[in-house]
Amino acid sequence: MAPQPNDTRDTFASTLGAFTATVGSAIGLGNIWKFPYLTGSNGGAAFVLTYLLAVALVGVPVMVVEHVIGRRMRLDAVRAYRKVVPHQPYWQVIGWAGLASAVLIMAFYTDVAGWVFAYVWKSAAAAVAGRTLAPQEFGALASGTVEPIAWQLGVLVLTTGIIAAGVSQGIEKVTKALMPLLFALLLVCDVRALTLPGSTAGVAYLFRPDLSKLSGAVLLSALGLAFFKLSLGMGTMTTYGSYLPDRVRIVPNAARVALADTAISLLAGLAIFPAVFAFGGTPAGGPGLLFATIPLIFSKMPLGGLFTVVFFVLTAIATIGAMVSLIEVPVAFLVEKGHVRRPVAAALTGAAMFALGVTATLSQSPVLSGVKLFGKSFFDLYDFLSSNVLLPVGGLAIAVVGGWLVSRTEFMQELDKGYAGVPWHGRAVYAFVRYVAPGLILLILLSSLGAIGP
Ligand code: PHE
């Protein structure tokens, strides 16, 4: 590793800004949509437990490496990994794979984000008309053609517009102050869901693990979710690391981000599963779980229609923070490497994401629902390829680079920044980076291939 001069680079304006922006990337549809839906389709608590372990043992160490490398190199992800190990430029493949992951993720993410924006509109219309959105209305939206594509396009135009405006202004302003509101609203949902008759089965579903539900595939999904959730394994957090000011303490920042993010996911789970059981629904409801359940929960409350609207507005905002960080990966690269102007880079990236995104959206509609690749629809394929293949493999490579190939002294210097002395946790974190994280990723990848274990 070699430090780069950083005087010309835009950095987050404050420590709090760095935290909120990182949290802003982490918190998104992953918490509110994906965590509940994957938990439901992977059998509940055993998945949750594996997921929590994956966040702590793998996610936090990999985030630390990404921030260390990003801040040290002060470059976009491709160039950072090209230069981080002297004479081994091929690690830039991490950055390239990250660009591919960003586009793949956005292809289905913008579809789901479009549903969220559509639900802001639909729940407002329903509230005015004094009715509740029925679960079937989600099916009608998701399997449509023009309607979901129009929402998807709207989402992309909005997010690329924010990106075109620049790093600190664009990202920090959007994410600051709104997460606490989302947190508060989820708490309201939880209280309502947990006091519904029959809700305790949902709590048991989330927290009483049945270890016989574990398999290589479940382990890999949990690991993939940990990467997806914390925006790891693809250079997003490396890029964000390159905007971190020196006074930010990398380890506590990563730990706080992981805690806040996990808390939001668990709160979402605690709203959804108790309600699913109370209303006699099925936990394995698939991608529509969130959209079918939330309006029902709120319909049992005074001012429920209004709360539903606010809920979807806040989710939409959380989603923007995450999407901004996804688009930022290719944009940072195009701007710094391709010397393209920022708005042009944002437009090009948005266009590529839209082109692929349309295939994900149409794969839910009769137009493309018959087309399967490797037995999966385009939507599921992009999701699987990114979360269960590219991110874990990218994370493994990042952990190997951080733990084995860059100078330990320089790595430790980054961890020490922001402290007067040497913090106590440095060595422990380094051991996780070097042994625990890569070891676990490798074990899970092997077990999902059926080579070993459950
Ligand atoms: N972490 C985001 C979420 O959970 C998604 C994301 C993945 C963002 C990868 C950036 C990079 O919604």
Would you give an account of this structure?
By secondary structure, the protein is an all-alpha fold. It has one domain: Amino acid/polyamine transporter I (Up-down Bundle). 74% of the residues lie in helices and 0% in strands. It is built from 19 helices and no strands. The model has no long low-confidence stretch (mean pLDDT 90). Keywords: Membrane, Symport, Transmembrane, Transmembrane helix, Transport. This is Transporter.
CATH topology: Amino acid/polyamine transporter I
At the fourth level of CATH, the homologous superfamily is: Amino acid/polyamine transporter I
Mean pLDDT: 90
Beta percentage is under 5%
Low-confidence sequence ranges: none
SS-derived structural category: mainly alpha
Q: Count up the domains.
A: 1
Measured between the Cα atoms of the first and last residue, the distance is: 39 Å
Brief rundown of the structure:
By secondary structure, the chain is mainly alpha-helical. It is 74% helix and 0% strand. Helix 3 crosses helix 10, helix 10 (200-207) packs across helix 13 and helix 11 (216-229) crosses helix 19.
List strands and helices in order, with pairings.
Blueprint: H1 15-26, H2 29-41, H3 45-73, H4 77-83, H5 92-129, H6 135-142, H7 146-164, H8 167-175, H9 178-194, H10 200-207, H11 216-229, H12 236-241, H13 250-278, H14 289-299, H15 304-336, H16 342-362, H17 378-405, H18 408-416, H19 426-448
Protein name: Transporter
InterPro entries: Na/ntran_symport (IPR000175), SNS_sf (IPR037272), YocR/YhdH-like (IPR047218)
Main location: membrane
